[in-house]
Amino acid sequence: MLRAAVSWALRAPSRRLPQGSAPSRSLLRIPAEAEAEAAVAEKARGPAPLRRFIACPELARDVASRLEGNLRGSLVFECEPGPGILTRTLLNAGAHVVALESNRSFLSDLESLKNKLDGQLEVVHCDFFRLDPINVGSMKPPVMYSETLFENLGISSVAWTADIPLKVVGIVPQKRERNFLWKHIYALYERSSIYKYGRTELNLFVSEKEYKTLIAKPKETRIYQALSVLWQTACDIQLLHMEPWSSFLTNSRNGGLSIPKSVLLQNDHLCLVRMTPRKDLFANNLTSANSSIFIVMVKQCLAKSKTKLIDKLNLWSCESGKKLLRQLEIPENSTTGSLYPEQYRCLFELILQSNEFDQSWLYDDDCLEDSRGVNL
User: Fold this and answer.
1) Residues with Cβ < 8 Å from 171, sequence gap 6 or more?
2) HSE-CB for 198 with a 13 A CA cutoff
3) Cα–chain-centroid distance for residue 6?
4) How far apart are CA 308 and CA 17, in angstroms?
5) Are 53 and 249 in contact (CB under 8 A)?
6) How far out from the chain centre does Cα 233 lie?
7) Model confidence over 29-71: pLDDT tens digits?
8) For 301-354, what is each residue's pLDDT tens digit?
9) What are phi and psi of 103, to 5 degrees?
10) b/e sequence 245-259, b meaning 16+ C-beta within 10 Å
């Protein structure tokens, strides 16, 4: 059923649901908050990584309302839905939902909800945050490859410049945040994993600390990082909503929130952040084939943000740093940490056009230490 639903959603996202297929409000009744808390506490017992859940129907409605545009007909991957409070809200809004749940304890209730609907909900035993592991042999759910997931769901790829084919909604696990951001920035630039199928849009709760890192500017020297440049270059980043950590239910046995401490940045909220890949990301000389070079360049530059930019350029482009800076109207005394994301992209594309560009710098000792920063 979902194959047909997915195909319909991608062809006509603005259409109304076919006659008779709208879910009954009684079937999608959102449990009272107390009932939801009891369900989560009961089903999340046992050793498991710390997870956060939306257990308040009002918060679920707030999240759905922040997802701009009409959800009716949209294809949504909901990551780790748990008790399904947000799931019901998304379904009531008319979205076609694929619930990706890693904990078997929650699957039976999600399957029961699915059976009451006419193809609007699919339930998959899958951990979205562990999709496409590297150097892993045979796998069993919830770990899987995105290619398998998309093929089983009947989802085909669309052109990069087409409309958004898929929205991903969820809460990034606290201990996987930085790992997740690095893994997805590589996948996005390479147009692999979920980005192989088009400009997949992420609508995810991340810590306030990580959100501020993502949107940091050069003047914020202590938090302006390679991740800041790479995500801002690749995506339009929007803050949709901020919610105190206490609004979310956890599966912690002692009931604690386990709020991560932050020295440099305020970290009192989880931030619902939309990251929409740019249509023109690959419009010029930046391609999925050479994007890894761009990532390495940015990482090397911002490893020491007070390094003189001209010194780096002279290493990469045979003492032509002054010429490159002049072409871009960048002062010769600029440091690597003073460039904005758009300047990094322009600089990279200009270097690629230069006949003096020397790719041997990719294999310098410093660069060999450039792992993906992903612990899988």
Assistant:
1) 51, 52, 53, 54, 79, 80, 204, 205, 248, 270
2) 18
3) 21
4) 58
5) yes
6) 14
7) 665 554 554 455 444 444 567 899 999 999 999 999 999 777 8
8) 999 999 999 998 888 776 788 989 999 999 999 999 999 999 999 999 998 887
9) -95, 120
10) beebbbbeeeeeeee
